[in-house]
Amino acid sequence: MSEAPGKPRSFQEIILRLQTYWASRGCAVLQPYDMEVGAGTFHPATTLRSLGGKAWAAAYVQPSRRPTDGRYGDNPNRLQHYYQFQVLIKPSPPDLQDLYLGSLEAIGIDMALHDIRFVEDDWESPTLGAWGLGWEVWCDGMEVSQFTYFQQVGGHDCRPVSGELTYGLERLAMYVLGIDHVMDMPFNDPQAPIPLSYGDIFRQTEREYSRFNFDVADTAVLLRHFEEAEAECAAILAHPATDPKTGREITMAHPAYDQCIKASHIFNLLDARGVISPTERQAYIGRVRALAKACADAFVTTEAAGAGDGANAAA
Amino acid sequence: MPDLLIELFSEEIPARMQAKAAEDLRRLVTDAMVEAGLTYAAAAAFATPRRLTLAVHDFPKATKATKEERKGPRADAPEKALEGFLRSTGLTRDQLEVRADKKGDVLFAVIEKPGREAAEVIAEALESAIRNFPWPKSMRWGAGALRWVRPLHSILAIIHDESGASVVPVEIEGVKTGDRTQGHRFMAPGSFAVTSFEDYQAKLAAAKVVLDPAERAEKIQHDAAQMAFAQGLEIVEDKGLLAEVAGLVEWPVVLMGPIGETFLDLPPEVLQTSMKEHQKFFSVRNPATGRIEKFVTVANRETADDGATILAGNGRVLAARLSDALFFWENDLRKVKAGGLEAMAAPLANVTFHNKLGSQAERIARIARLAREIAPAVGADPALAEQAATVAKADLASEMVYEFPELQGVMGTYYARAAGLPEPVAAACGAHYAPLGPSDAVPTEPVSVAVALADKIDMLTGFWAIDEKPTGSKDPFALRRAALGVIRIVLENGLRLALTRPIAEGAKANHVDAADHAGPMELLVPDLLGFLADRLKVHLRAEGVRHDVIEACFRLGGQDDLVMLVARVKALQAFVDSEDGANLLAGYRRAVNILEAEEKKDGIEYSLDPDVQFAEADAEKALFAALDGADPAIGKALGAEDFSAAMTALAGLRAPIDAFFEDVVVNSDNAIIRRNRLCLLNRIRTVMLRVAAFGALEG
Known about the structure:
The complex is a heterodimer.
Chain A: H1 11-24, E1 28-29, H2 44-47, E2 56-65, E3 81-90, H3 96-106, E4 116-120, E5 123-125, E6 130-139, E7 142-153, E8 156-157, E9 163-168, H4 169-177, H5 198-216, H6 219-238, H7 253-272, H8 278-299
Chain B: E1 3-10, H1 15-36, E2 42-48, E3 51-57, E4 66-74, H2 79-89, E5 97-101, E6 104-113, H3 118-131, E7 152-161, E8 164-167, E9 171-172, E10 175-178, E11 180-182, E12 191-193, H4 197-206, H5 213-229, E13 234-235, H6 239-246, E14 253-258, H7 268-279, E15 282-285, E16 292-299, H8 308-345, E17 352-354, E18 358-359, H9 360-378, H10 382-391, H11 399-403, H12 410-418, H13 423-431, H14 446-465, H15 479-492, H16 500-514, H17 524-541, H18 547-554, H19 562-577, H20 579-602, H21 618-639, H22 643-651, H23 654-663, H24 671-689
Parallel strand pairs in B: 7-10
Antiparallel strand pairs in B: 1-3, 1-7, 2-3, 4-6, 5-6, 7-8, 9-10, 11-12, 13-15, 14-16, 15-16, 17-18
Helix pairs in contact in B: 1-3, 5-6, 7-8, 9-10, 9-14, 9-16, 10-13, 10-14, 12-13, 13-14, 14-15, 14-16, 15-17, 16-17, 17-18, 18-19, 19-20, 19-22, 20-23, 20-24, 21-22, 21-23, 21-24
């Protein structure tokens, strides 16, 4: 493969190579979504665009937050803020596995020396009302990606089916670069005039957010925000599709979905604060799922989902 | 005679599904062939991560033509009858033949089915098999509607004989059958054509694919054993893992690597579990020390550096995983050394066991009381049993068990030792969960036995108290397993334990904790004993004990001593299998039948003592004498729990009863004599009922 000019030297080079590779394979390289999410899947470019009949191909980096995984920057590979690289192609192309393997070569994994395996791993997101079948991909026993064929999102059957690839960037990069502690990983070129490690950039924020997430975030405020986001989501969707000002049909699926994302992140924070009991937990997950489902119901009626052009959008 | 080769080539099939899928493919296709009249000599199915393969040998080129004649209604039958016949035969009126019969003209249908080409039958069978394949979970992909376990890429289907091979033409959702397949994803990319099963298997082998999962497993096992042996080590056997790993590779290459020095002091179970669950590694043990010192991983390819890169990568992943395990282990040890297992168990007060039965801590308190109660009967020290039960589940709150739930109990034993608790207590932490399955050993150490029984009886009485008993195939709390555990622990240790009391105690405690959720308690003990008897029937079936024999003993009532119950059951089974037993049973039934019929007719019970002075015939007098002799002998034998002797005493009744029915008519004209004889029959029933409820016996 022409994209594999030896080993990359930094975290950012791996990201850049993945972007270049997927761009060369026809994906639109998007930018991260500008909200706090738990995983790249939450980006509307995946959640909403996996619905409806229109073809789609996108790749992007998504900063992701998992408050419960905070370890004050001490743990070699656990972070409350980390990056995922996400690819979504609809319909899933028949050679998706080969395309994926090409991306590993592009970041310097020599297929002739490594052992790549597709090990069963079914994906399910209770908060998104979504599930799919696929694998975790192992490289020499290390999980480097999730590979999923979406079957359902927001309670809707996916027709056509999207193929989703998720790379855990820190873990993958540490493996490729041979680094044992994430904070030691070169972020930019180690030969640069000002070399910066992952720790130079994120050690401080990991500490701050770990303290904030576990002990400081105001749970009363969070609980209120959760309720507000939930109510706002419903309120947005309750507006009739016809805009009284412009007279156009404008279903506001995306603004409503923003509120769903917000509720989901607040739930994660509340969970990290330890104020949600196991029984309540299920109830909260159900409430976020109801929002995701309502947004999905709205999205499939829009032009972006292919509604109105004969595609099987409202399935 | 031709052969058939089918290969369904897909993206990676989950390892756990492969064996059943291969078998399902064989069954679906060959059943349909046989159904259509294509019988075959042999069939074999195989699976790799990327393919399901079926080879069927020696079947006819075509099915035989058939001719079927069916007789219909009379020629002058009403329209309705004719319509029905036409519908069922698929013919029209003018296609029917009219034949003369004794009663007039009758319509006949002659249905001729021509023979069909094997290829046509197989094409249909294959399409139906693919469309109706029983995957535990299946999916769609791309824009298609077909469902398969993962995307299906190609189908190879050929029929071949000496004259050559031809493709069985099938097209499903854009996937067409052909004669081509692919080799190993990385080592031999590209496709090739095949002409027969032998050709297919040979070309696959050349393309770095071992088709037969058994052969892959054998190679893994052999190579791993050799590699370990060369260094004076041995592989820790794990059949489940072997099967799984053989399903993850098409070209197995075994590699062995070291476990970092820092991790070697972790308990072997921790090393083994972490390596197996996370990495699918085999553990390699030093037989001299019992320590796990190395790991074996199975790669899916050969490399130019003989696996050095692969091994190094796997080693690094392992080190990261074991660092986590070491962290948990050290934290847990620190906790128990500072505050004992009680400190570790403290959070269990906030963990719900079941929302109607309270917290784990409440359950543990119930088990502790029950263990103390049971202890004397199983030869354990009550205080020690109570202490063991109190700490036996503390490890559920440990970091290690949170990470690896399957290490519950095992970790408890380590932590109890670290806390300086007596060895029987430490052992009980692990052993009280046993037996986990029908082949798992039962605990034998008295303290472990007391805690194990208390644990299971609390489970059973708890779910009985809130009326969550197993129904049909639903047994979410594994109560059948708990009941079998009680049975096996009692029987295999020969424990003389009357279960009524601990069950009543357990029920009472659960009743209190379940509060408003508890149902009525009156029938709980007999109902649960009945459940145990049902489980006992299943358990003893394997030993050839008849369920009705168990029922006949259990129905005597008060049978809560399982050791005694089984002794009686075995004696009774031996007896009813003997000639005396079979004849006595016949005599018993005759007596009871007569008695019950007369009682029904007369509307009274003949339950008075019969009087020998009204006996007329010799046979009647002899039966009196025999019963008078047997009664105390049976009583004595039962008192000594010598059930064989009781059966022997019963056997002595056979000849007198037979002679009685031979010579004596029960329904005498003399009312007094008749009543006396009926009471004599009742006495037979009463005497025999002391030994078993013979009425429950079948056959």
